[in-house]
Amino acid sequence: MVRFLSERIASAALTVVGASLVAFIILRAVPTNPARLIAGPFASDDVIAEVERALGLDKPIYAQYADYLVGFLSGDWGFSYSTGQPVYSLIAERFPASAELALYAFLFAFVGAVLMTVLVSFTRSRWLDRFLRIFAFVNIGIPPFWVSLLFLMLFFEQLGWFPGPVGRGPAPLEAVTGFYTLDYLLAGDVGGFWTALRHLALPAFALALAPMGFLIRLLRANLLDVTHEPFVTVLHSKGVAPLSVHFRHILPNAFLPTLTAGGLILAQLLGGSVLVERIFVWPGVGTLVIDGILRQDYAVVQAFIMLSAFIYIGVNLLVDIAYGYVDPRVRRS
């Protein structure tokens, strides 16, 4: 097991270095001089040169990359010229909003997909199976921003069940985790918890529908494959109860690909969902990054790319480790 973990951690470290190199090269290839953006369009060449020295842009490219990598790992993510604040502070301030939205969307997608698919598979109802397939196809085919607009028109404007595009709602008096729902619960404020949950519901469901459709299709296909395996026939012939066959033997064998896909989806959601955050005025990282792109504030974009790489690799590392625990064949391989 130690060798398995060592190999996964080494692979994750190499991937981080590769992602940082790609992000660094791409942003250096953009035909924009950060020193010119900071100093202004009417700055003299001497002023531009001074700003370049201050930013380290006069160094060789490999020295700039080393400074960038060391700075990121030590928490120095650069300076946002458009907001006048350190990038680390900006992202740290907004990341809890994106993370809370992503985790709720993931819970809706993953739990909903597993429950519906397993129940439909167990009942073997053709009508329910047909409905599930249509539901999955529709969810995959419609973009989240369009679903967001539909949700707002139906549940906010017509029915008035949920708040409109007003962000996360009122903040808790004391921020402990940065997650409004958890902070309200820790403070014992049940009313505040429900208010935060109602603000989360529409954007989280809008983000969850497409991943839910994908997971339903994936798990359904794997369940069908395992159901026709010879060992399942043997179990039925021995008189093992159908409930036990389905949940103790079929589901564990069919679940591993869904676990892997769930990890990728969670990492993708944690990276921020720009359009949905825009529509619901959600103060997350996605909105910050799109503003950074529009203002050519590349320090923000560069830090976001690196952070996304770390999230992807970290989540995949956890999934690999979980995979090894669930399936001993993976450890042995």
Describe this structure in words.
By secondary structure, the protein is mostly helical. It has a domain of 201 residues: MetI-like fold (Orthogonal Bundle), CATH 1.10.3720.10. The chain is 77% helix and 1% strand. The chain contains 15 helices and two strands. Strands 1-2 form a two-stranded antiparallel ribbon. Strand 1 and strand 2 form a beta hairpin. The longest helix is centred in the middle third of the chain and has 38 residues.
CATH class of the domain at 95-295: Mainly Alpha
Considering the protein shown, what is the CATH homologous superfamily of the domain at 95-295?
Answer: MetI-like
Tell me the number of strands: 2
CATH topology (fold) name of the domain at 95-295: MetI-like fold
* Average pLDDT figure: 81
Q: Biggest sheet, open or closed, and with what strands and sense?
A: 2 strands, antiparallel
Radius of gyration: 24 Å
Strand order of the largest sheet: 1-2
| Distance between the ends | 11 Å
Domain ABC transmembrane type-1: 95-319
Protein name: ABC transporter permease
InterPro entries: BPD_transp_1_N, MetI-like, MetI-like_sf
Organism: Roseitalea porphyridii
SSE diagram, text form:
Layout: H1 2-29, H2 34-39, H3 45-55, H4 61-73, E1 79-80, E2 85-86, H5 87-123, H6 126-141, H7 144-158, H8 180-186, H9 190-227, H10 230-237, H11 242-270, H12 274-279, H13 285-294, H14 298-326, H15 328-332
Antiparallel strand pairs: 1-2
